[in-house]
Amino acid sequence: GDSGLIALRTGIAAGAEAILIPENPHGLEGLFHRLEHGRKDKTSRIVIAAEGDDVGGAFELGRLVTERFPHYDTRVSILGHIQRGGKPTCQDRVLASRVGVAAVEALRDGRRGEMIGVIHNEIAYTPFEHAIKHKADINEKFLKIVEMLSL
Description:
With 151 residues, the chain is of the alpha+beta class. The chain is 46% helix and 12% strand.
């Protein structure tokens, strides 16, 4: 929620018109500028908003775009909800079983404050303070790529 790295890379891959991320505080004004002054022959535009953007989430962003550009048919999709769907594969079920057993064993052994995962196909324990709040620096060149591709 604090980093826009995934949103930035996804937006580049999807050809997004604009990508709003916490690391770029001018995202909303930049978006409005692109929507107002961008190519007029485009029939649709993709905008990606990271969870931690300063606008207030995708639905608030959709409301602001609709308010400013009422002639646009604005639609909001929360990809996280779509990604969580689908049937688990055999590999998903095996992974869930391995991690579940390891979690019960860890509790039984008195382990606390750790995340359980798999590293190099082996169960691994990672302290929570090492597993969260890792912020990757945003490569400014990626932001430039978005600007250039959206023209």
